[in-house]
Amino acid sequence: MLPAAGKRTPALYRELRRLIEAGTLPAGGKLPTSRDLAARLAIARGSVVAAFEMLIAEGYAVARPGAGTFVADRVPTVRQAAAPATIDDAAVRMPLPGTLGVAMADARTLSLFRTLLNRHLARPGPEHFHYGDPRGGAALRQALAAYLRQARGVRCTAQSIVLTSGTQQGLDLVARSLFAPGERVMIEDPCYPSARAAFIGNGLAVSGVPVDGEGADIARAVPEARAVYVTPSHQFPLGVTMSMRRRLALIDWARETGGWIIEDDYDSEFRYAGPPLAAMQGMDDSSRVIYLGTFSKVLFPGLRLGYAVLPEPLLERIVALRARSDRSPPTLAEAALTDLIREGHFAAHLRRARRQAQSARDGLLEGLHMAPGLAATVPDQGLHLVAGVPESVPDTLAVDIARKAGLGVRALSAMAVTQPPRQGLVIGFSGFAPEVLRDAASRFSAALARL
């Protein structure tokens, strides 16, 4: 059966191909004539002829002059026993207020970005018409190096930067380039689950490093570890800042053991009290820190641009892997982003984004404070907060209650590595209006109070 609406030729082609692959139309069998099939389906004969020609061109059918059109003798078949893989609807539906990883849509920035894109589309340079540098365009790397030196205290040049599609690709490139399967890396406990997934997915063994009020405690490191992944400026998920003595101890560990530090600086631009904290990479004089950042939080994930600042000994192998995996970053987005930074629009966007995020944070807190036992501290940095739950309510149960109330939260206990799981809720406040967050949090607070 064909769908009621839509173009007839591709619809008929897809249906005939499906029947052939399923074996319903057997190999070597004759297809109905184009005239007969057009009459039965009440469509134009030309649509049937065009569909037959598509099948013939792809080897699913053969035309025999004077005899008709037949299914080819050898065609691919689809096994019917195995159900097709499905994607969880939760991964594609619109996120609930409070969901992590949602960026703020700033109308002024989007208008500027559209203007900059149009500028480069109107007068496209030759770099858009051939495969570029796997490190990314030199202009953006130069602009980014200047920004990172000034804003984050990072030791870098354009030559030490590799542009990525985001932090996750940076982690994957590092894991695949530096370590052999079975080698051990350490990760903060509780952890950023996607980082753990990147390491485990590349066959690495993962151990947890306990996190307290000073951040990750490298004194608890396992001897055979090759690297440690940390979020020192704003630990995910707990939100603590790594103390200076812990930072120095971690750098000493890397220098003495030959290990690597992977510093994920995912949301350092969002600091609401005092100046931004300097990156740990800028304190390292032994070139043992790999620094990762992204534009997904500060602009929007759809841009698909991040970066890695790499020690010189690692550059060649990571650039070679980048070239093999996806050649180079998108040059058109690079060009617009370069202009956004160089012309001062990016700095102005950051100021607006901080104000929006702070208002959203306050709206979320206002709604959460209505429930007894739901303790939430006011974070002075980042785009999420951690709320404690009443002792009688497991955080996994609280997650279900929150979702039914229209608030997207994650269980802190699910982010444990090896330490006993802590109870709590991780809630984002980026990308949603303050009143939307307040209302969703109020509904959740009321539902929790009824328990």
From TrEMBL:
Outline the extent of the HTH gntR-type domain: 6-74
User: Which UniProt key words apply to this protein?
Assistant: Aminotransferase, DNA-binding, Pyridoxal phosphate, Transcription, Transcription regulation, Transferase
Q: Which GO terms describe its molecular function?
A: transaminase activity
Q: InterPro entries, alphabetically? A: Aminotransferase_I/II_large, HTH_trans_reg/aminotransferase, PyrdxlP-dep_Trfase, PyrdxlP-dep_Trfase_major, Tscrpt_reg_HTH_GntR, WH-like_DNA-bd_sf, WH_DNA-bd_sf
Q: Which domain of life is it from?
A: Bacteria
Q: Which CDD domains match?
A: AAT_like, WHTH_GntR
PANTHER family on file: HTH-TYPE TRANSCRIPTIONAL REGULATORY PROTEIN GABR
Family the UniProt entry places it in: In the C-terminal section; belongs to the class-I pyridoxal-phosphate-dependent aminotransferase family.
Protein's name in the database: PLP-dependent aminotransferase family protein
